[in-house]
Amino acid sequence: MRVLHVIPSLSATSGGPSFALPAMAESLHHRGIHVTVVTTDDHGRGLHVDGITCGVPIAREFDSIIYFPKQTEFYKCSLPMYSWLSEHIHEFDLVHIHAVFSFSSLMAGRVAARNKVPYIVRPLGVLNRWGMENRRRLLKSISFRLFDFPFLKKASAMHYTSRMEMEEVSRFGLNNIQCVIPVGLDLEPFRQLPPRQIFSQAFPETANTRNLLYLSRIDAKKGLDLLIPAFAQISRRHADIRLVVCGGGDPAYLEKLKAMASDEGISPRVTWTGPVEGDLRLSALAAAEIFVLPSYSENFGIALLEAMAAGLPCVSTDQVALAVEVAGRNAVRISPLDSKEMAAVLEELLNSTAERQALASAAKAVAEKDYSLPAMGSALEHLYLDVTSRAT
Question: 162 and 205: one domain?
Answer without folding.
Answer: no
